[in-house]
């Protein structure tokens, strides 16, 4: 499982890096690219690692699902959760995100 975890994390990170270079300005496209990039990167790298490390496909699928859910939470729920914790003014991404953050947490 360590081999899969490491490859999943690296793949998700590389997927995010690729999505970041696309420089989307529309929030929905930006969020979709980040979630897709993290999931695709995790899936590709975990698939390779599963065959090399002789791990089960079920374990690899769980790692990819975790990458998808984590990035989905980050891109969709994070700002409202931030506002709930810090009362900082962050809102849903499609309603302005952290543009009105009063605590400068996201700078």
List the helices and strands and how they pair.
Blueprint: H1 2-21, H2 27-53, H3 57-76, H4 78-86
Helix pairs in contact: 1-2, 1-3, 2-3
Can you give a write-up of this model?
The chain has four helices and no strands. It has helices at residues 2-21, 27-53, 57-76, 78-86.
Features:
4 helices; 71% helix; mainly alpha; 107 residues; elongated
Question: What is the percentage of strand-forming residues?
Answer: under 5%
How would you describe the shape?
A: elongated
Rg calculated over all Cα atoms: 16 Å
Tell me about the largest β-sheet. none
Short description:
The protein is an all-alpha fold. The chain is 71% helix and 0% strand.
């Amino acid at each position: 499982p360590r081999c899969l975890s490491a490859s999943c994390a690296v793949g998700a990170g590389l997927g995010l890096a690729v999505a970041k270079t696309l420089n989307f300005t529309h929030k929905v496209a930006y969020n979709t690219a980040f979630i897709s990039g993290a999931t695709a990167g995790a899936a590709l790298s975990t698939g390779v690692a599963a065959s090399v490390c002789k791990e089960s496909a079920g374990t690899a699928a769980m790692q990819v699902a975790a990458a998808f859910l984590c990035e989905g939470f980050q891109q969709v729920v994070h700002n409202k959760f931030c506002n709930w914790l810090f009362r900082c003014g962050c809102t849903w991404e499609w309603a302005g995100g952290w543009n009105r953050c009063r605590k400068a947490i996201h700078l």
